[in-house]
Write a structure and sequence with these properties.
CATH topology of the largest domain: Rossmann fold
Radius of gyration: 19 Å
Largest sheet: 6 strands, mixed
Number of strands: 8
Structural class: alpha/beta
Number of helices: 6
Oligomer: single chain
Helix content: 25-40%
Strand order of the largest sheet: 4-3-5-6-7-8
Distance between the termini: 41 Å
CATH superfamily of the largest domain: Flavodoxin domain
Strand content: 15-25%
CATH architecture of the largest domain: 3-Layer(aba) Sandwich
């Protein structure tokens, strides 16, 4: 929108563990570190500020042109192969929204060729490269599910959620990317916690949904 203007990008400096990711993703979009103004807790006054609206209202529609543009830009810059990975996003270190019978779920997924991944310790480059090679992703409703943005078109995505917490954020993202999305709602341990409740998922139902996804993958090959 402002092709001939030289400008700084004002970016929150906190939390500190997000700074490297923010800097790296801006770099992918052609923004150098010298062009970033890191905002601290103190008030900052601007003579002129272009405020970019949020990519989405939470649980509402994303900007599909923005997501498609970003995914294409980044996938073109991060080396990755064409391995057909099956990924399970583990949250075994979480303090809420825990999958209480994760060992049972993981046992069934392992039989079907899935690998458990904990993306918290991975760089954003590593996350992009990993999910760019995924043919199916299974995980609880969690911020790490945003990595489906890098997964290929037609990737099968399955999200596990407590039955009192309906989160459509990633369903919307998968639709924009042309991915098949399935919800599995499990019994909440404490319904008053809504989407943050610990819960139990039905292994038999999961197997049915995953096997249907694998069958669709096999038909496309």
């Amino acid at each position: 929108m402002f092709p001939n203007q030289s400008m700084l990008f004002a970016v929150p400096a906190n939390p500190a563990n997000m700074r490297a990711m923010r800097q790296r993703t801006l770099q992918w979009m052609g923004v150098d570190e010298a062009d970033i103004l890191w905002l601290g807790a103190e008030p900052t006054q601007f003579d002129l500020l272009h405020f970019i609206t949020a990519n989405s209202i939470h649980s509402h529609t994303h900007d599909f042109t923005g997501l498609r543009h970003i995914s294409a830009q980044i996938l073109a810059q991060v080396p990755h192969g064409k391995v057909h990975r099956r990924l399970y996003i583990s949250r075994d270190d979480a303090t809420r929204r825990r999958l209480l019978n994760e060992p049972d779920i993981l046992s069934q997924l392992t039989k079907r060729g899935f690998s458990a991944v904990a993306t918290q310790a991975m760089s954003i480059d590593e996350q992009v490269a990993l999910f760019a090679e995924a043919e199916m992703v299974v995980g609880t409703t969690d911020v790490m599910m945003a990595n489906i943005l890098w997964a290929p078109e037609h990737c099968e995505v399955v999200t596990l959620s407590p039955d009192h917490g309906h989160e459509f954020f990633y369903w919307d993202m998968a639709g924009i990317r042309g991915q098949t999305f399935s919800f599995i709602f499990g019994e909440s341990a404490d319904p008053s916690q809504l989407g943050n409740a610990d819960f139990t998922a039905d292994p038999a139902l999961l197997c049915k949904v995953v096997d249907a996804g694998l069958a669709r993958i096999a038909r496309r090959k």
